[in-house]
Each structure stands twice: as C-alpha cells, then as structure tokens.
Amino acid sequence: MKIDVVSIFPGYLAPLRESLIGKAVSRGLIEVGVHDLRTWTSDVHRTVDDSPYGGGPGMLMRPEPWGLALDALAPLGGPQPRLVVPTPAGRPFTQALARELSAEPWLLFACGRYEGIDSRVAAYAADRMVVDEVSLGDYVLAGGEVAVLVMVEAIGRLLPGVLGNAASHEQDSFSDGLLEGPAYTRPEVWRGLPVPEVLLSGHHAGIARWRRDESLRRTAQRRPELLGAVSLDDADRAVLEQ
Ligand code: SAM
C-alpha cells in the first residue's frame, strides 16, 4: 500500500518510521511519503492560512496550496488515491472503516491545522477521487497529524504480512463486533490472583466458549450499544440474560 501524508508539521509523522509500521515500511509492505504543505506556497512567508469569510475566531487553511499539493501528488488523468481528511465533523473512524481502507492501494491523508481546511478542497478533490472526511472521536485535536498516526497504525496492521500472526487481528476487539475479553499470561498465580482455570485446561472448545462469554459480558457492561449489530445464538443470549 502507498500512503502519502500532507502536513505543515512533517516532523510530527516521524513515528511512521518506528515499530510495526516502520518495520512494514522497511520491508517494502508499505510505502510512506510525508510532504510539507508549504512546498506548495509561493510567498516569502510560505503562508497556508487566512481568516474565514463571514468572520469568526481563528484561521482557515487556504485552498491554493492544497490544490497544488493534490495536483502534484496525484496528477489529473493519472491513478488517483483515496483521500482521507481527518476532521471532528467527519464520520467516525471504526475498525470496519480501517478494514475498508486497508483494501485500497493508495491513501492520501490531508492534515488540517488551525480551524481546518477551506471546504472547497474536499469538494474539488471529490471530482476525481474518493474523499472520506473522518473523525477520530467526539473531541477536538489541534491538528490532523495525530489522527493520521492512529489511522495508519490501525489500517497498516491489517495489511497482509504486517503482523507476524494474522490471527491476532482476526481476534481483536471489534472484529466480531464485540470487545475482547480479559487475557492472561504466565505465571499461573500472580500476587494471589490465579488465571481462570479453563484457560489451563487445554480444552479448546471450552476455552473458545469462555472467551465468547467474557466478550459478551464485557461488551454488555461497557459498550451495550455494540450488541445490536452482533448476531447472537441461544448460548450467547443465555449469557447475556444471566
Ligand atoms: N474547527 C474545527 C471543528 O470545529 O470542526 C476544528 C479544527 S481542529 C482545531 C484542527 C484540525 O485538527 C482539523 O482540521 C483536523 O485535521 C484535526 N482534528 C481535530 N479533531 C479531530 C478529530 N476528532 N478527528 C479527526 N481530526 C481531528
């Protein structure tokens, strides 16, 4: 997968060279390009912002540098990326969206700063590429860079070969619509707290049932709204009715 990120703080994206994603980059599984939006300014101050029409506090990112950035990175008539624009006004970023985006060959992320990007940029881009305005959650960050780091990590770990064991993301929270239940490693008893006996039993079906039950209980307790989208059998319903 090819990933391009445009930001006025390219240094903020340095963690893309670290850890899991960094290794995927060095192994050639992901190609990352980080670009300074100010490359596409022409004034001496390399200005990227201006005051909003209609008044109001704060500054907005001007459309011109963004238009030039899009034209340079994805020239008209050539292959086009899917453009992801982080914004608190976007649709929520979920595991399902991470999975959908992980199937794309090329993603381009546009990091907003100040009060965001002039709305015509997304409209202009939508004429030639798929544009997703995506929110990380119901809070406001200072810029899109942190949101991009989150999204690239969630998307990148779903790509074939990035995780050592693909089964680990298949069992993650949200993969089956539920939160993952509690998990334990050695020692069997730690500070007086034992590991649930079933996990030591070697009985695979019993362990799978216990994990499903714990997932159901945890989801019901912490995120009950998720249960509506999960297909439940009689055994599941019995656990939830306890
Ligand atoms: N005025 C904007 C609003 O109220 O919707 C907030 C702009 S915010 C200060 C600056 C930038 O941070 C946004 O353009 C976006 O790139 C990023 N950002 C802030 N909160 C975010 C969130 N919850 N999800 C994704 N990106 C966010």
From TrEMBL:
Its EC number is 2.1.1.228. Its main location: cytoplasm. GO terms for cellular component: cytosol. Residues 1-227 form the tRNA methyltransferase TRMD/TRM10-type domain. One of its GO terms (biological process) is tRNA N1-guanine methylation. It catalyses: guanosine(37) in tRNA + S-adenosyl-L-methionine = N(1)-methylguanosine(37) in tRNA + S-adenosyl-L-homocysteine + H(+). Homodimer. Specifically methylates guanosine-37 in various tRNAs. This is tRNA (guanine-N(1)-)-methyltransferase. The lineage of its organism: Bacteria, Bacillati, Actinomycetota, Actinomycetes, Cryptosporangiales.
